[in-house]
Design brief:
Elements (H helix, E strand, L loop, with lengths): L7 H12 L3 H6 L1 H26 L34 E6 L10 E7 L2 E8 L4 H13 L1 H8 L2 H6 L1 E3 L17 H4 L4 E7 L1 H4 L4 H11 L1 H10 L5
Antiparallel strand pairs: 1-2, 2-3, 3-5, 4-5
Helix pairs in contact: 3-9
Length: 228
């Protein structure tokens, strides 16, 4: 019987990295990173792929060590005041196949000491993408409400992301769905914890989360003219 993919060693490494975020320490502990973080993350990507396929063939689980679903541990510090070289979390993405060319929905797993969640939707879309999603919500309000009020979605997910202070240009400030039409991100999160991801059943549970999020992802795909 297979054991759990993620263990407490992953979170122990990330806690230690947060206290020692420099290249010398990372070089001395690279073997820990490869064994306790990178290898389990890539195994997770490979094992979640069949579950993701049950939701849609258009979302990609790519277990390549470079350029795949696992985000790099290195931070881009070129335009940041914080020059810490490494991320202190693990990010794993499952993008829509159209994501290379346009802003498109995706799934995301975030592993960080004290902050673990599974996300879905469109994060920081450009103006054209935002306009299409808002237009779809305004044109199909009952469908949008039905997605958010779906029993499985509502039980596991909450909407998040950034929001405008005022109504977007061209949208009635008194629109009954104005709170959703002011959103700058169309994302939803399922809060988890360190113990949850260390369960042997976690891959299966992630597959269930993907299924719970399917109506939300389908609405966004339809709004953007993408295959679900």
């Amino acid at each position: 019987m297979k054991g759990a993919i993620f263990t407490s060693d992953l979170f122990a490494f990330l806690r230690d990295l947060a206290r020692n975020n420099d290249r010398a320490w990372f070089a001395e502990n690279r073997e820990r990173y490869e064994r306790d973080v990178k290898a389990p993350a890539l195994r997770f990507v490979a094992e979640v792929a069949p579950h993701l396929g049950k939701v849609s063939p258009n979302f990609r689980a790519d277990p390549r060590p470079v350029g795949g679903s696992l985000f790099r541990i290195h931070r881009d510090v070129r335009f940041s005041k914080d020059k810490s070289p490494y991320k202190t979390h693990v990010g794993i993405r499952f993008p829509h196949k159209a994501g290379k060319d346009v802003h498109a929905p995706g799934f995301y797993l975030h592993l960080e000491p004290g902050q673990v969640f599974f996300g879905c939707g469109v994060w920081h879309p450009d103006g054209a993408t935002l306009a299409r999603i808002r237009a779809s919500i305004a044109a199909r309000p009952d469908r949008w409400r039905g997605v958010l009020d779906g029993k499985r979605f509502r039980r596991r997910f909450r909407l998040g992301g950034d929001t405008l202070q005022r109504a977007p240009r061209g949208i009635d400030p008194d629109h009954p769905l104005i709170d959703d039409l002011k959103r700058k991100d169309y994302v939803a999160f399922a809060e988890l914890d360190e113990k949850a991801v260390q369960r042997q059943e976690f891959v299966k549970e992630c597959g269930a989360l993907c299924l719970d999020a399917e109506p939300f992802q389908r609405f966004l795909c339809e709004a953007l003219g993408l295959e679900m």
